[in-house]
Amino acid sequence: MTAKHFALQALPTDLVQERMPRHVAVIMDGNGRWAKQRGLPRIMGHRRGVDVLKRLLRCCRDWGVEALTAYAFSTENWGRPTEEVEFLMALFERVLRQELREMMEEDVQIRFVGNLEMLPRSLQAEIDRAVSETKNNRGIHFTVATNYGGRQEIVQACQAIAAQVQAGTLQPDQIDEAMFEQHLYTHGICDPDLLIRTSGEMRISNFLLWQMAYAEIYVTNTLWPDFDREEFHQALISYQQRERRFGKVL
Ligand code: FPP
């Protein structure tokens, strides 16, 4: 690892290490508006958004967050103009190709969740390569939700379980939350503790519906391309001030 790039930044003194979220999820909203405000094409917002995500990943690593999940493309995003969809697919592919070396150096383990079969073949190949090359890395777990929809994820889990019941290898009363989770794309990753959404929208937008059951939600008006370390710091202060009861009386 070269100190030049990757020197660890200390946790701000007003944050408590023991109360850091283990898993942070982000809905990176506002790229288009950010670009429009500057008279730029929407894609410029996405391009800058990648740099912001890279910096956040590094910041999570520095401050002891174990997992970061980013909503890069939803099942609904196919409804955008064709040029924008094509740009995003090409961007994901290029970023993966360019960043693989640094992910290895920084010990990042990357995973993708979503219906990946519908993505362009060349992107699928790049995803397979990045996932397999980083699978033994033991640093931060970085998950990218691509062609992801929470309802679709739950439906495909139901289909897999129903097939086992139909085959006679599973009894309906053996279905419980733990076994259901094994059929989700995210199996093996702990549930998000903190969801951050930029650009002021107060919605979950079909993201990690099952996994988000007890996530704390932080919404900022800042547009994703302007989301920086200080904004993340503010989100963490807010998170650490909350009392998480998980439905219990403490
Ligand atoms: C939402 O902003 C943003 C997206 C749908 C794309 C986000 C993707 C990236 C930042 C690239 C990530 C890359 C990798 C490889 C993980 P919007 O377009 O909905 O903005 P608007 O609400 O202002 O229109």
Summarize the structure.
By secondary structure, the chain is of the alpha/beta class. It has 8 helices and 6 strands; from the N terminus they run H-E-H-H-E-H-E-H-E-H-H-E-E-H.
CATH architecture verdict: 3-Layer(aba) Sandwich
Strand adjacency order, main sheet: 3-4-2-1-5-6
So, the CATH homologous superfamily?
Answer: Decaprenyl diphosphate synthase-like
What is the number of domains?
1
The percent range for strand residues is: 5-15%
- What oligomeric state do the depicted chains represent? single chain
The ligands bound in this entry are: farnesyl diphosphate
CATH topology type: Undecaprenyl pyrophosphate synthetase
Proportion in helices: 40-55%
Tell me the structural class: alpha/beta
Q: Whole-number radius of gyration?
A: 19 Å
CATH class: Alpha Beta
Q: Strand tally, please?
A: 6
Overall mean pLDDT: 95
> Which sequence of SSEs, written as H and E, runs from N to C?
HEHHEHEHEHHEEH
Low-confidence stretches: none
> What distance separates the N and C termini?
44 Å
User: What composes the largest sheet?
Assistant: 6 strands, parallel
Family: Belongs to the UPP synthase family.
Keywords: Magnesium, Metal-binding, Transferase
InterPro entries: UPP_synth-like (IPR001441), UPP_synth-like_CS (IPR018520), UPP_synth-like_sf (IPR036424)
Pfam families: Prenyltransf
Structure commentary:
This protein has helices at residues 3-6, 31-37, 42-62, 82-105, 121-134, 150-167, 177-181, 229-241, and strands spanning 23-27, 67-74, 109-113, 141-148, 194-197, 216-219. With 250 residues, the protein is α/β, with parallel strands linked by helices. The protein has one domain (20-149, 191-240): Decaprenyl diphosphate synthase-like (Undecaprenyl pyrophosphate synthetase). The protein has a six-stranded parallel β-sheet with strand order 3-4-2-1-5-6, with helices on both faces. Strand 3 (109-113), helix 5 (121-134) and strand 4 form a beta-alpha-beta unit. The radius of gyration is 19 Å and the shape is globular. The chain starts with a helix and ends in a 9-residue tail after the last helix. The structure holds farnesyl diphosphate. Farnesyl diphosphate (FPP) is lined by residues 28-33, 46, 49-50, 53, 70, 72, 77, 92, 95, 144, 199. Keywords: Magnesium, Metal-binding, Transferase.
